[in-house]
Design a protein that fits this description.
Elements (H helix, E strand, L loop, with lengths): L1 H27 L12 H4 L13 H10 L3 H27 L7 H21 L6 E3 L5 E3 L2 H21 L6 H16 L3 H21 L8 H19 L5 H4 L1 H20 L9 H9 L3 H27 L2
Antiparallel strand pairs: 1-2
Organism: [Bacillus] enclensis
Keywords: Cell cycle, Cell division, Cell membrane, Cell shape, Cell wall biogenesis/degradation, Magnesium, Membrane, Metal-binding, Peptidoglycan synthesis, Transferase, Transmembrane, Transmembrane helix
Protein name: Phospho-N-acetylmuramoyl-pentapeptide-transferase
């Protein structure tokens, strides 16, 4: 256990100590957050907050690799970096042009599917992950590799973007993602997955010092897409398909709210929610503060995580 806890503590300290210097650097380079005009007035005050802070979370990868330089750890690192690279392009476009829309969705999706397909091919051919998709305890499908890659790529890209949607309030994604990483740390029999998950928790705890309300820095898509990609691939590697709807419930709720909002507006001209993703709705309709929303969403994430852990232990492995 100490060979995983010590790297996590080191990652926490590195992020916590380096963050003030990185914040100053981003301000100097004017890589700061532009704000969409339709967002509430309290969000307009966040304009100028340093963006692209997900880069600092890369220290977790460095720590992980130094403590476990194995092909499996390199794969986890590359997954994080590739999705983070897509987010970096988006963040850099937003910050350098002060354009809140960033890179087009089509471009990001093309890159995500390209990277995901390549990574899945490597997972199957080199890491030996089987192509079985388990729907329930008793229902599973052993798919041809090409079909498996297509199906799982849809899941990975969809989940990564759902997780990306969750990064909309100060501290929200960090608070919600920590229990998800904790789940994979507990259930995995793979030392690299345990180490990576715990180190990411350490990095996020260090980052939250500066990201909780009022945030001094935002992780941006550089961080949120990287987290989304890594969590999605951890789900694929650990074969926990049956638990994903509950484990990822916050992320999927955020994504579903956007889909329903767009569909409703196109069909009827009316909006279901005051604003999406749904975390904005609770602030605008019910007057919840950012801290309240983050606390509630974090609590739900922990509850769902413990339910999943109980099901995994007593039902799947009882």
């Amino acid at each position: 256990m100490s060979d995983q806890i010590i790297p996590a503590i080191i990652a926490f300290v590195i992020v916590a100590v380096l963050s003030p210097f990185f914040i100053a650097l981003l301000r100097k380079l004017r890589l700061v957050q532009p704000i969409r005009k339709e967002l509430p007035a309290n969000h307009q005050l966040k304009k100028g907050t340093p963006l692209m802070f997900g880069i600092i979370l890369l220290t977790g990868l460095i720590v992980s690799i130094l403590f476990s330089p194995t092909p499996f750890m390199y794969f986890l690192a590359v997954t994080y970096i590739l999705f983070g690279f897509i987010g970096f392009l988006d963040d850099f476009w937003k910050a350098s042009r002060q354009d809140p829309l960033g890179v087009s969705s089509r471009t990001k999706l093309i890159l995500q599917f390209l990277f995901t397909g390549t990574l899945l091919y490597y997972v199957v051919k080199e890491l030996g992950i089987d192509t079985v998709v388990r729907i329930t305890e008793n229902v599973s499908f052993d798919l041809p590799m090409a079909v498996y890659i297509v199906v799982i790529a849809l899941f990975v890209v969809g989940s990564a973007n759902a997780i990306n949607f969750t990064d909309g309030l100060d501290g929200l994604l960090g608070v919600v993602a920590i229990p998800t990483y904790f789940f994979f740390f507990v259930i995995s029999d793979t030392p690299e997955v345990k180490l990576f998950s715990l180190v990411m928790i350490g990095c996020l705890l260090g980052f939250l010092i500066y990201n909780l309300f009022p945030a001094k820095a935002f992780m941006g898509d550089t961080g949120s897409l990287a987290i989304g990609g890594s969590l999605s691939f951890l789900a694929v590697i650990e074969k926990v398909e049956i638990l994903i709807p509950l484990l990822f419930i916050i992320y999927f709720a955020e994504q579903l709210s956007v889909i329903l909002q767009v569909a409703s507006f196109k069909k009827t001209g009316k909006r279901i929610f005051r604003m999406t993703p749904i975390h904005f709705h609770y602030g605008l309709k019910y007057g919840w503060s950012e801290n309240t929303i983050v606390t509630v969403f974090g609590f739900v994430s922990w509850v769902c995580t413990f339910i999943c852990l109980a099901y995994w232990k007593f039902v799947l492995h009882g």
